[in-house]
Design brief:
By secondary structure, the chain is α/β, with parallel strands linked by helices. It contains 9 helices and 12 strands. Strands 8-7-6-9-10-11-12 form a 7-stranded parallel beta sheet. A 5-stranded parallel beta sheet has the order 2-1-3-4-5. The chain binds NADP nicotinamide-adenine-dinucleotide phosphate (NAP).
Length: 310
């Protein structure tokens, strides 16, 4: 009965092993590069695993993604496709994401980038914005994170819209589903929040065509995945004034290279993939509970659907 852990960075790996071991005392838990008896390994706990990382383990019962997304696992061309993938979600993760979304939506809504620029120029300019009830905010993706974010925005008084693949009902949120309703949704979003999973269907979805469908001067917040965004299209949309600002938490290449134009762009706010960062003490409780449940029942609520891609 053993578990291997694969996370970039030795310190992080050791931190997670220590936390997991305290909760799963009957298990042997080791780093993936030093697994001991490979036949005994039945679970792999991973974030951005290397290609072929799972091949040495013939008896894997499940792969545990240390995050809500599974794109980093599916990216492995040599992934054993029959092994179930368990996502790591929970109230700490959704709480963190609702804080991030509320913070940045309110920041756009209240024109904080312009107010901060004015402060740097010692300019006293009372910018007047409408109340939240007259501001429409759209959330793409209405799952664990997007659904919670949409509820939070509605509770703040925003006119809240949501879009998902299949129709969702959320109190206080006007919902849209699928390609057929996408344009109607976008036409109303003064602030757009992306909380989609990264799949073939959503890769590059934040592109020139989408930006052109938003009301002029809209702002965009991407806390999904970097490859949702076509970076040059964003720069063009900001340049033309079609978009006024973007807040980006996720990037094609992470860490964002120091020479990347986003760092110094006056209309882009960069945050380093911290919207809802899972820490070992919190995350290991969720992971340990999921492994124990899967071990006894063969099922957990947070099982991903690899065919669907999320
Ligand atoms: N920045 C961060 O710190 C951070 C942290 C955690 C997660 N994330 C990202 O957030 C993503 C969402 O997490 P979650 O737990 O909310 O996922 P989830 O529970 O699986 O929900 C995904 C939502 O996206 C919708 N969706 C999927 N494909 C779609 C498509 N082609 N068109 C329209 N809607 C589509 C789904 O529609 P249905 O409702 O119809 O299934 C669902 O509402 C993760 O995959 C990850 O990439 C980022």
């Amino acid at each position: 009965m053993s578990i291997v852990v694969s996370i970039p960075g030795v310190d992080k790996t050791n931190w997670w092993i220590e936390q997991l071991q305290a909760l799963l005392s009957n298990w042997t838990i080791r780093p993936i590069h030093d697994p001991g008896d490979v036949e005994a390994v039945t679970y792999a706990v991973v974030w951005k695993p290397a290609t072929g990382a799972f091949l040495p383990f013939p008896n894997l019962k499940a792969i545990v993604s240390l995050g809500a997304g599974i794109d980093h696992v599916l990216a492995d061309a040599e992934l054993p496709r029959q092994v179930p993938i368990i996502r790591t979600v929970g109230t700490d993760l959704t709480q963190r994401m609702r804080e991030y979304v509320a913070l940045h939506v309110l920041r756009h809504h209240r024109d904080m980038p312009a107010i901060s620029a004015n402060q740097r120029e010692r300019r006293w300019a009372q910018l007047v914005v409408p109340p939240a009830t007259q501001r429409s905010v759209g959330v793409m993706g209405l799952g664990n994170l997007g659904g919670t974010a949409a509820r939070t925005l509605a509770s703040l008084g925003f006119e809240t819209l949501g879009w998902s693949r299949t129709k969702r009902e959320i109190d206080g949120v006007t919902t849209y589903a699928g390609q057929a309703e996408f344009a109607d949704f976008l036409a109303r979003c003064e602030i757009l929040v992306c909380l989609l999973p990264l799949t073939e269907a959503t890769m590059g979805i934040l592109d020139a065509d989408l930006f052109a469908r938003l009301p002029r001067g809209a702002s965009v917040i991407n806390a999904g995945r970097g490859p949702h965004l076509v970076e040059d299209d964003l720069l063009d949309a900001l340049e033309s004034g079609q978009l006024s600002h973007a807040t980006l938490d996720v990037f094609h290449v992470e860490p964002l290279p120091s020479e990347h134009p986003f760092w110094a762009h006056p209309a882009i706010t960069v945050t380093p993939h911290i919207a809802s960062l899972i820490d070992a003490p919190t995350g290991s409780r969720i992971v340990a509970a999921n492994i124990e449940r899967f071990e006894t029942t063969g099922h957990v609520e947070d099982l991903a659907n690899a065919e669907r891609g999320y």
